[in-house]
Prior knowledge:
The protein is an alpha+beta fold.
Amino acid sequence: MGQRHVTHQAMRRTLLRTLGIALVYLVSSAHVGSPDTWFEGNAGPYHLTVQIQPAGVVPGVATVYVRATGDIPQTVTIQANKFDATGGAPPPEPAPPVTGDAGAFSGRLWIMTGGSNSVTVAASGPEGSGKVVVPVVIVAYSRLQLDKPVAAGLLAMGAFLFVGLLTIVGAAVREGSLAADESPTPQLKRRARSAMALATVIVVLLAAGGWRWWNIEDLNYQRSMYKPLASTASMKRTDAGDAIEVRIADSAWIKRRDTLWLSRHDANSWSPLVEDHGKIMHLFLIRDDMSAFAHLHPATSDSISFSSPMPSIPAGRYKVFADIVHESGFTHTLTSSIDIGSSSGLPTAMGNGDDSWFVGAPAGDSRTANLQSGATMEWVQSPIIAGKPASLRFIVRNADGSPAQLEPYMGMPAHAVVSRDDGSVFVHLHPMGTISMASQMAFAMRQPGDTVLGTLGKRLSAAEMSAMQHAPVTIGTVSFPYAFPKPGNYRLWVQVKLGGKVNSASFDAHVGAAP
Length: 515
């Protein structure tokens, strides 16, 4: 019995230690330390920016903010739905206008189950109606603490009820059978004291049982909290030269086709990976001092090991972030680190096809960076406050000062990466927000008959390739909807394609605390 108790305590400590490590990279599944979901795009005739703030617990209440620019709708509704829901979606909830803020709407939604969810935002008004589906990954990544004043009040109330219960038991045994004018005998008093002692033992045992039950429930909840898939990154030698390999080491993924193993270990059954922006993985390397950055796209033959030629970046220790998307629309950001020795590759600050890297200092106080093609990129910046929508608007000009023609880069006018200097925040942005294009398509294209794994994925790949081929050219200006989650020093890398080549620029940002 003692051995089992020690083993249980050791397992508990190991679990809590593992959770602590996972929560260093605050966990919103996709991206790191940045739990909100952002989307910017059109819902019919209305241009909307949508921010979804998850509760961090499941079930929980998510807050949805909607801002319309240009034509303003009269009504906005929001509706939550699970990707693999077997029943109908709950009815839409109204998102009332925000008082004193024209074009802003806000509402709250109960999200009952974790995993790949979506929020459908519908807008209607004089210009017509439209709706848009915003994918959102809902996971439990926090554990609510009991407020100390509330705990003190509950403890005081419990003590009052306990004393009251003992008083009632003692009075009932001592005086319950007496007439109004009779006094209790010594024997009745002894019985009353015995009854009160027995009631105390019963209440203590009930409290101990409740405490044990609460701890078990709490431990089960902690086990269910989201933890990123375990992964490793390493350098390897190939016939073609140095390469970087990212490997998913998580048993739940490696054993994903073994239903018996999954059932025995109470593990998730993951759906296959699908391409996002035409790539099965988006891999980012950020040097610890943030002086070097790479955006790569490894290939894989088994969806476990992913390999990419090593870019020409300086030696050092790098944080590794890898974005992957499941057929269900669920997104992951794998996290690890790697020590890179000297490597050979293409010239620094350029790239190979869609792979690209940047080495050097960020733009100075002028907020204008010189791009590799001779163009310039200016960040139209205003003061940035944590938790408030940030102005991430960039103007790209040719060498002669004219607006540059931005070619689609993997189907997007631009890509951006935001990282806090301590690595606690990482996010991969597009002008459409933080969402995955493949995730949004998964919700839009899923049909009731898509019960065989891989069926939807094939259609997603074809549709995404078509969307990328027909992506429009953007002239001059790109922007990204986002709010920095906490104060501190950040670095941004913004990437555009000019003349068939990816150009990268780097900017520093100091994010102030909210008043």
